[in-house]
Every structure is written in C-alpha cells, then in structure tokens.
Fold this sequence. Notes:
The structure is a single chain. This protein is of the alpha/beta class. It folds into 2 domains: 5-82 and 208-293, D-Maltodextrin-Binding Protein, domain 2; 86-205, 3-Layer(aba) Sandwich (D-Maltodextrin-Binding Protein, domain 2), CATH 3.40.190. 31% of the residues lie in helices and 19% in strands. It has helices at 18-21, 44-48, 60-68, 116-129, 164-170, 194-205, 218-223, 225-241, 257-273, and strands spanning 5-10, 30-34, 55-59, 73-82, 89-92, 107-110, 137-140, 155-157, 175-177, 187-189, 210-217. A 6-stranded mixed β-sheet has the order 8-7-6-9-5-10, with helices on both faces. Strands 2-1-3-11-4 form a 5-stranded mixed β-sheet, sandwiched between helices. Strand 1 (5-10), helix 1 and strand 2 (30-34) form a beta-alpha-beta unit. Helix 4 (116-129) crosses helix 9 (257-273). It is globular, with a radius of gyration of 19 Å. The mean pLDDT is 98.
Amino acid sequence: MNEPVTVRTLLGDYPVTQPLKRGEVKSPSVSLDFADVKTVSTAFKRVVRDLEFDCAELAIVTFLMAKAHGKPLVLLPAVVLARFQHSHIVYNAERGLLAPADLAGRRVGTRSYTVTTSTWLRGILANDYGVNLERVKWVTFEEAHVAEFTDPPWVERAPEGKELVAMLLAGEIDAAILPAVPTDPRLKPLIHNPAMAAETWSRKYRALQINHMVVVKESLSKSHPDAVREIYRLLAQSKKAAKLPREGELDTNPFGLEANRRNLEVAIDYVHQQRMIPRRFKVDELFDDVTRKLG
C-alpha cells in the first residue's frame, strides 16, 4: 500500500471544518498536516507570497487578486466561511446620524483596502446606495496580501499605533468596517435594518457573499490529482459530519461549482468594478480540469 500524500494545510476552525480537524474524518491516501495558526487570515500573505501551503483556506478577494498576478493557485468549489456583510459597517451614534448617502467626503476605516468584507461592502454601497467610492477617504492599517497591488489614491494609511475602533470613537474617522458586529451600544449600523437589507440583496442578486474558500497549488493538482479529489471529499464529508446546513437554515457553506457559480460571478463583478483585477474572470477560469469537476 502506498504511503499517504502529506499535504501542508492552512484551515481555520469552523463548524464545517471541525470534524476534519478533530480527526473524525480521515483518509487512507491523504494526510493533512495542519499549520498551527490561530487566526488564518494572518497567514494569507504566506499563502500568496511564499506559496507555503499545498492546500489553504483563502479569502476570495485575495484569491482573485492573486490569480490576476499569476500566482499558481487553483480554487476548490468549497466555501468554509460566508455571511451577509451589511451589519459590519458602523458609525458612532454619539456623533450624530450617518447613512450611506452621507459618505461623500467622509473617512471610513478598514483593516486593509482589499479585505473581502470591505470589498463586499463597497460593492453594496456603490451598487445599491449610489455611493461614489472615490469620494470617500478609506483609512487602512495594513497593506494588501498580494504584494503587487498598490492602494488607489483615495486610500490613506492610519498613523502608526492607531486602532480602528478607538479612532471611530474619537471622531478621527466617521465609520468603520469591522470583522465582527460590535456590542458597544454607541456603534450603530450604517445600513439601516441590515438584516432586512441583506435579505433584499440576496433576493436581488440571487447570491451569497463568500468570504473564504479553499485553494490548492497548481503543482499539487498536476502531480497528485487524486489527492486533490480526496481533499475535496474530506471537506465535503466534514460538512456532512457537522450536519450542515441545519434544517431550515441557509446553507452558508455551499460545495460544488454550480452551487457557487452565481456567488463567484457577483464577487468577480465587485472586485473588477473596484479595479482590483484588470478584467472580469469567467468562473470556470478559477478552476482547473481537476477541481472544475468536483461536486
């Protein structure tokens, strides 16, 4: 019997991945060597700059930008994290009311311009609320994961040592895009009734807002296609073992190319509209002959 293929892997802890990471789902032909990384997004630079992992969770915006710059990565049709982003842009209500229509000339903070949540929200603001994104000053704290990308002129870097929420509370920025919905009662959603707005968006675009999917190195797919198929099977089996989606709930971990086609089309549109990639990729371009047939 052949030794299993060892695959250096970056994968976060989510309900959909927990059975796999706990060893409840196993394979005789593939051994996933999980990197010890507490917050996976902190390692995304290592995925696209150093090509350190054979298989990795990756933000969809980072993947699209990486593809635009020729990084040898291939998408698997497996979503490990998705959500509607409408509630993640907030303002300090103690300083008065603020709505999307008020953003021209205002300062909005976000960890990095190319963060996937921020990209989704800018697309929402532009397409559904008529916001001219170039008339907003976007205040960031980090560079893009993809080294080749340069922030546009309407982006400025926050002073060293500053913190996003502290700047918002101090009035140094007018709104902020946060990774988690805040519990501070002073911070209110910029988009009125974000849950209803998300439902409206979902009906209008017939899509889910993907955050993170899974990628593999092109070299792994070429040299060990069966291992790539087995990785996908393990991920799908992990989802099944986690009993997802729960009865009556939206499936926020869609698997398979056709289940994700529309989600990816909208993501591509938003990233291209914001000039973060030079052209609109076709969804099928994101996969290779192995991964395109999965699901």
